[in-house]
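Usage

Read records sequentially. Each one opens with the input sequence:
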Amino acid sequence: MAGDIVYADIKHSSSEHSSSRQRSDPHHHGIFLKVGCAMIIILLVIVIVLSIFVIQFKSARHTKLNNESKEKYCTGQNKSETSTLIVSFNSSTASKSCPSEDWKLHGGKCYWVAESEKPWNESKNDCVRKNSHLMVIRDFIDMSFLWQNLHVSAYYWVGLRLPPGEELWTWLDNSTFDPQLFSKKENKPRTRSMKCGLVSYTEIAEESCEKHHRWICQL
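and closes with the structure output:
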């Protein structure tokens, strides 16, 4: 009889333990599920914050480059010179027209921006066929056209070249390049072939004349 009582007690205790574990398992499962969801939400928030930070950083860098380029050109210009440029810009714009709607009138000068890509020589010849020439950057009017009309990340052929063995860049009219206009990208290793000039939103760069790029004609 005593053995039966002990056996009954053990069986009853085991049943209670099993029932308690069954009740606790759903509770633990619910906790794990909530913790997992919370971690996923936190990770999503971190990804979103990092994405916003990267976008803001790129935007700030682009603005800084643009401002530095403009400040570099404008350094040393006094108010009277700036006023003269503005008056000249307005009066010349009103008195000149361009050959067609494909051309853009800016500060008394006409510019044509290509959408296709060609080597430098073919680009130069295309401008000649249009009774114009590859762009020669001279002053604030030319610079402001670049700031207002070029794609930020694109490069365009202009009338700038570096003959083999030479150290000075020259324009098509044989005048020398003015480094005060804007920065020039670090030179590539010298070769025997002629190098040609590309212009971007903020700088001049050199490239093999055989490469294909867009170009800008000027009239």
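Summary fields computed downstream for this record:
- The mean pLDDT is 76.
- The longest strand covers residues 156-162.
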